[in-house]
Amino acid sequence: MDALHGSLVSRLPLPRVAIVIPARMHSTRLAGKMLLRETGKSLIQHTHEAAMRSERADAVIVATDHEAIAAEVTRFGGRVILTSPDHPSGADRVAEVARQLPQYEVFVNLQGDEPEIEPACLDQVVAVLTQDTSTPMATLATPLLDQERLQDQSNVKVVFDASGRALYFSRSPIPFVRDPEALSAALSIDSPRFFHHLGIYAYRRDFLLQMAQLPPSPLEQTEKLEQLRVLEAGQIIRVGVTTHAAAGIDTPADYAAFVRRQARVQAA
User: Fold this and answer.
1) What digits encode the pLDDT tens for the residues 142-155?
2) Hey, which end of the chain has fewer CB within 10 Å, N or C?
3) Is residue 10's pLDDT more than 80?
4) Is Transferase a UniProt keyword of this protein (predicted)?
5) Regarding beta strands 17-23 and 59-64, do their DSSP bridges make them parallel or antiparallel, or are they unpaired?
6) Could you state, in order of their start, the residue ranges of all structural domains in the chain?
């Protein structure tokens, strides 16, 4: 971005931002996880409270396909919108909400199973999106320094160019390290080559609505990664790098570890 362009962008009024939390009842690996409450609060309440701490959020909305989740959000005082149960991805669910809320210019997609997301990450992904008016969508990544997590297909990896433009997302380790002796250097914090994708996104509203009109793409269906629909359509996803690495809750073991961490926080 040149100096004049940057100066003009900095003078623009801040767009109104809505954080939308897609929350499904049915999960393959941890059924009903949004309503688990061994910490004294439901998982969806933890995520909602984290989102509410974002300095850039003008609204926080839970988007769900299930009455029980809607009732829980209402119980703790959150805002909820019931959506279709037929959406193929969280982005499509967020788009349904965006169609109903034209007063917001930016929508952040925060998965309901991210209770430990740092509010600063939500602010950062909005900043990455809005620092350049040509960027329609943004996300975050953090250096991946552990070989076991590198091989774990539940940890999505991303590669991006020098400007932060995403080149590809995959469940496989990318980039491929041809020389085995170079692997340790690639996993070093000094010059990381691997980046773990954090599953939060910021979209400009018009782009989100256009994206939702596209059918699921071949690579999206192959990897089961909704962001590949955008890359296959030739669009830009800008990636910001953060040192925060929140853990999503996908399995009973993930949830048990989260409960233990919460117990330590409450005891401190």
Assistant:
1) 999 989 989 999 89
2) C
3) no
4) yes
5) parallel
6) 15-117+251-262, 119-197+216-245
DSSP 28: S
Cβ atoms of 243 and 230 within 8 Å: the answer is no
CATH class of 119-197+216-245: alpha beta
Homologous superfamily, domain 15-117+251-262 = Spore Coat Polysaccharide Biosynthesis Protein SpsA; Chain A (3.90.550.10)
175 cis-preceded (ω within 30 degrees of 0): yes
Alpha-carbon dihedral of residues 4, 7, 8, 13, nearest 10 degrees?
170
In sign, the C-alpha dihedral spanning 76, 258, 249, 60 is positive
Give residue-wise pLDDT tens across range 28-46: 889 899 999 999 999 999 9
Among all chains, which residue has been given the structure tokens 């433009």?
Answer: 165
Question: Residue 108 has which token pair?
Answer: 């952040």
C-alpha span between 63 and 74 (Å, rounded): 12
Distance CA 17, CA 135 (A): 16
Q: Which residue's structure tokens are 């929140």?
A: 246
What is the DSSP track for 49-87?
A: HHHHT-TT-SEEEEEES-HHHHHHHHHTT-EEEE--TT-
HSE (side-chain half, CA atoms, 13 Å) at 28: 0
